[in-house]
Amino acid sequence: MCGTIILREEKSEMNKDQKVLYSGMQATGNLTLGNYLGALKNWVNLASEYECFYGVMDLHSLTVRQNPAEFRAHARELMMLYIAAGIDPEKNCLYLQSSVPAHAELAWILDCFTYMGELQRMTQFKDKSARHSDNINAGLFTYPVLMAADILLYQTDVVPVGVDQLQHLEITRDIAQRFNSIYGDVFTIPEPYIGKVGAKIMSLQDPAKKMSKSDENPNASIFLMDDPDTIRRKCKRAITDSEATIAYRDEQPGLKNLFDIYCACVSKTPDEAVAEFAGCGYGQVKEAVGEAVVSVLKPLQDRVKELQKDKSYIDNVIKTNAERAYYCANKTLRKVKKKVGLTEIR
Ligand code: TRP
Questions:
Q1: Looking at the predicted structure, is the pLDDT value of residue 87 above 80?
Q2: Which residue's alpha carbon is nearest to atom 15 within ligand 1?
């Protein structure tokens, strides 16, 4: 174990000139095509440019009651999806948030530097507590502080997040600045990373809503592990319009969304896609979208199935990456504890 840590240390010293990028996803439910095209797919390309940390955010998932066995399996599956998507666990640090205790420790310390009023203003807290009025727990309230801890522990420079998480990044910056103004430069102040074409995929049944893993309508979302026939059927049933014109415009949001999916899958521009389908009916577009999605997801699914068979490989990835995350996180945590006056045992 000692040897591994020294090895990892050398690696992170080696990458000192690279900026640090941090992101993660919650370990609940099934990821959708939206999560893949909007986030995961783009993460793959960032490895050469940044030193990347990608967490499986299992502590955040505890704000909702979980079935323990399913939850554990989901966290592992998310880890496999990261790898299957092409994120190399040798070049990037992929780890489970709960295997690094520093997250919970720093979150507590930062709780004491965060105001009730700030947390009460968080729109996600307001939304979630309205939707789950039977379980408005304190974890849901302090969720953004744990997220701040995630980000700040790794001296993160950039955080790729969707617009729904921008407010959480903003509070992270506020907390970090507040802490730094009292104790000196302890934390790097993170910036949002705005990707080039972070496709925003909408519901197939209501193009005004984002594609979501918790949509009640099973035809609204394509899940990453949906089989090819299910994917084709969902695309076929996608809501379009009665204009019967092939165009990429806001007035035809259903068709626009189908083109966004298509373009993200086959790496084309909307103009190219519109030209390709000129004179076609919507049925043909839907069919092509279905095939494009299948051809993107099928290799991903095959890879996940392969990884599922190789228990010791995943176990090893979970262990070695956790060690590296632990090392980096604890460097920051030690500094924080010292600054606030907690006693260190040597
Ligand atoms: N809250 C994020 C989401 O639901 C997940 C998350 C937790 C995260 N900690 C993070 C994302 C740190 C980026 C950085 O999408």
A1: yes
A2: 25
